[in-house]
Amino acid sequence: MTAKPSLVITAPESQQLFISALFGTGVGIETQVGISLSALLCDQLGVSRDYLDQRIQTIFLNGRTVDHPDRALIEKDATVALSAAMPGLVGATLRKEGLLAVFRKDISQTDEKQTNCSRNDTMITLKLFNLVAKELGPSLLERGVWLKGSQLARHIERMGENAPAALGSVAWNGRPIPADQLRAIQWPAGWVNFVVHA
Amino acid sequence: MDKILRINMSAASGPEIKTEPLGPYSGLGGRAMTSTVVAKEVPPTCHPLGTENKLVIAPGLLSGSAAAMSGRISVGCKSPLTGGIKEANSGGQPSQMLARLGYAALILEGAPKDDTLYKVVINKDGATIAPDSSLKMLGNYDLVEKIKGEYGEKVGCISIGQAGEMKLGAASIAFTDMEQRPTRHAGRGGVGAVMGSKGIKVIVIDEAGSSMRQPQNPEKFKAANKEFVAGLRKHPVTGQGLPAYGTNVLTNVVNEAGAYPTHNFKEGQFAGAANISGETQAELENSRGGEGSATHGCHRGCVIRCSGTFFDKNGRFVSKQPEYETVWAHGGNCGIDDLDTIAKLDRMDDDYGLDTIEMGATIAVAMEAGLANFGDAEAAIRLLEEVGKGTPLGRILGSGAAVTGKVFGVERVPVVKGQSMPAYDPRAVKGMGVTYATTTMGADHTAGYAVTANLLGVGGTVDPLSPKGQIELSRNLQVATAAIDATGMCLFIAFAILDQPETFQSLIDLINGFTGLSLTADDVSDLGKTILTQERAFNAAAGFTKAHDRLPTYLMKEALPPHNVTFDVSDEELDEVFNF
């Protein structure tokens, strides 16, 4: 079996990674159809239950607000978005199990349906916003996330011309390359596994 | 604060200044003051730009004290945009300055006989007014520089730009911030046009010689303030999210929800949202201006510091950090996903003295009318320049989205009572739609903004699954907001108050420690109800009926992608909101 493309970098300073921008547009996570959102986050991705309950106050699954992550089930090619508590009336409205949930009942996740599929693999898109991006982003990057080649290319551009000089090491498809060659890589169209070590 | 300053611009021998005791307005502040004065003294059927309208500028009850977050100021009048009662709210320094000089309100009344432009100066010795034609058609930035040159770097300014002088419906009133820049605005409802109709270009405030207002019960006040600040600091929204990212932290989340009005409220998601999100904006600001650039308070005593500073790529100041509403209005609603463009438009709005929400909504309507393509940043800048120059097109645009839509034959104009909707689509978040439709202010996201656990219990229990829950909640929120607007507190305290009962209690204790009263949560609620009742009565007398408490009909027919929802809260339900 051909190994999927991979980029592994060491970045001592996480702010140069523009983590918010990266996770704001979403990264790929391999998982299984039919597992619950809480199982994805806690069992697979290592997010503590406490963090899920207390810190992640706004959750979306395919654009719908989620009030019960234990009951929300992952579908094929799903998009999951996580955020800390948001300000204002709309922030209170979108909050999981919030008092103002009735204000947005038409865009809320309804009673979750069981999928008929067996636990097939799927690639979901995981978006992390604001403080959650800052707090969970680094550990997810340590485990590795998936980006399409074009997405990775755009992100490397966003990091700026001086970014490679601040990196510790770069390995493309398992082989070390000079950091200044990073922007010259011919990115494939498909998925690339992107790993960042602190 | 024991006096009111009245400036009568109609006096036979020229503008006349009078200082009087509070009289029937004793104990009022902020929105309570402005709405009470307008309700009592302004004939509801008067012309908003005529001699009978009054412009009331009032610090909050706690402004000028050491209470954290208490620097907000209210501006009230009959609105030239909505035709109803208006309270517009702003940050900046003038609230604290006026309060420390002892003024509970400034009331501008009458109108000059010609187009002479006046400057008012207020200091510890009183107030003076004099003509100053050198200020004519200056933008707010140049105006403040001139005033700085004349009066020094410690004064505060309340001013109008070209838009206010032209009496345009979208004209705002600017308030200088801690850096003496005209970046904070009482934006909504055309209050700047009313100030322009009074012939007053700027009010200069010199607080030298004044001192902080002292509480009635210093020990109680100090303890409550400490608790209040601790509560704000420990809460993730007020202590972390807002200081780090500002209000624009909402872009990614509202967009994800499919509630982000895009291309003049045609869709609920914008493909370019991540490029203009609060996270992206903070990273850009900090990289250009240094770490910490994305954190800044709009007035001394603010501990949340949701604002920031936007620099261009060469490190030059452009504008204060654009707010969520501004980024949405000039960004996603117009199809623009470039933060530099949005910051430039924000600065232009501040300079000309325009409501960023109204102008963004107006430009989007103009795009729908074919005056420009959605996403054309240069065209958006050119359209806004027309307003500043006062060209015929500019005057149309500067009069707001409703007028622009009428002139160019656009049906899809997102306004209620003539005022543009802010950055949440009411079809996706219907509770917001209930508030937009029913508030006395026209479409307004802040009118139903604050909420407390206690207040939600007042008047009965709420079933979160019931459609009727939205009505009762909206009512309670509007009541609570009106009450908080009276104190001079920033509405962003709301989230900490909702989550932390001890922080809400500390706010009540703060008010009581300062005033010497013994208010309860029910009393705060009663204050809010009183304010709203007055405002409703004014609007009814001005000719408003149930028919005005409605959203535009196209929002009931046109499904909003991606969720394909329409606004389906019934008229009967909307009419229940003010059933108290």
Number of domains of chain B: 3
General shape of chain B:
globular
* Helix/sheet category of chain B: alpha+beta
Largest sheet composition of chain B: 6 strands, mixed
Largest beta sheet of chain A: what is the strand line-up? 7-10-1-8-9
Task: Using the coordinates shown, work out and report the CATH topology of the largest domain in chain B.
Answer: Aldehyde Ferredoxin Oxidoreductase,  A, domain 1
Helix content of chain B: 40-55%
Q: Tell me the greatest interface.
A: A-B, 40 and 57 residues
Low-confidence parts of chain A, pLDDT < 50 over ≥5 residues? none
Within CATH, the superfamily of the largest domain in chain B carries the name: Aldehyde ferredoxin oxidoreductase, N-terminal domain
Explain how this protein is built.
The complex is a heterodimer of chains A (198) and B (580). Chain A is α+β, with helices and mostly antiparallel strands and 198 residues long. Chain A is built from six helices and ten strands, in the order E-H-E-H-H-E-E-E-H-E-H-E-H-E-E-E. Chain A is globular. The mean pLDDT of chain A is 88. Chain B folds into three domains: 3-205, 4-Layer Sandwich (Aldehyde Ferredoxin Oxidoreductase,  A, domain 1), CATH 3.60.9; 247-293 and 308-420, Aldehyde Ferredoxin Oxidoreductase Protein, subunit A, domain 2 (Orthogonal Bundle), CATH 1.10.569; 430-574, Aldehyde Ferredoxin Oxidoreductase Protein, subunit A, domain 3 (Orthogonal Bundle). Helix content of chain B is 40%, strand content 13%. Chain B is built from 23 helices and 16 strands. In chain B, strands 2-1-6-3-4-5 form a six-stranded mixed beta sheet, with helices on both faces. In chain B, strands 8-7-12-9-10-11 form a six-stranded mixed beta sheet, sandwiched between helices. A two-stranded antiparallel sheet of chain B has the order 13-14. In chain B, strand 1 (3-8) and strand 2 form a beta hairpin. The longest helix of chain B has 21 residues, at 467-487. The radius of gyration of chain B is 22 Å and the shape is globular. The interface between A and B is large, with 40 and 57 residues.
